[in-house]
Design a protein that fits this description.
Blueprint: H1 3-19, H2 25-42, H3 50-57, H4 66-80, H5 97-113, H6 115-127, H7 132-146, H8 160-168
Helix pairs in contact: 1-2, 1-3, 6-7
Length: 169
């Protein structure tokens, strides 16, 4: 078994210890055996470290689905990857990646600032009975980050402050 495979397998075992709760040992072994080769194909071995483990575990109450693991690992990796510098056709100059990043943030903020788009996103989440609260909270986090003035468009139970109150009770 390669070191890469051991890193992913040990990472998944540790995740199971942190969040599995009352999951049976057989179920945990089956999930780890199924997830491990797929995660190895999707992610570099250095992704499976203590910081990514803490990041994923903090976002789960139970052992996550494969989709959730991938979603959280991707988010963790993207937060830590410096933007790539873009070369212009003239090799003597480079695009300032900070300006590019600022432009992209401004575009995202403008996009989220449109209440009609936020309502459409809200309606898409509400139209699916599966995991509404989880997706609603994700949507609320994005709206809060990019256009907090549109938070009243969303149901109150999706907002972070409602989730905090619920956790405190």
């Amino acid at each position: 078994m390669s070191i890469d495979r051991l890193a992913a397998r040990d990472w998944l075992k540790s995740l199971g210890v942190l969040v599995a709760g009352s999951m049976s040992v057989a179920d945990a072994r089956e999930r780890i055996a199924t997830y491990c080769p797929l995660l190895e194909q999707e992610f570099a071995p250095e992704i499976f470290n203590a910081r990514s483990l803490a990041f994923v575990a903090q976002r789960q109450k139970y052992f996550p689905s494969f989709h959730e693991v991938c979603m959280h690992l991707t988010a963790w990796a993207e937060d830590r990857t410096p933007p790539k510098r873009l070369a212009i056709t003239d090799q003597t100059a480079e695009v300032d990646w900070k300006a590019q990043h600022a432009r992209e943030r401004a575009e995202a903020k403008a996009d989220w600032s449109d209440p009609a788009k936020v309502r459409r996103s809200r309606d898409n989440v509400l139209s699916s009975p599966v995991r509404q609260l989880e997706f609603g909270r994700m949507l609320a986090a994005l709206v809060k980050r990019h256009a907090p003035q549109n938070l009243p468009v969303l149901p109150p139970e999706w907002r972070e402050d409602a989730a905090m109150k619920e956790a405190a009770e």
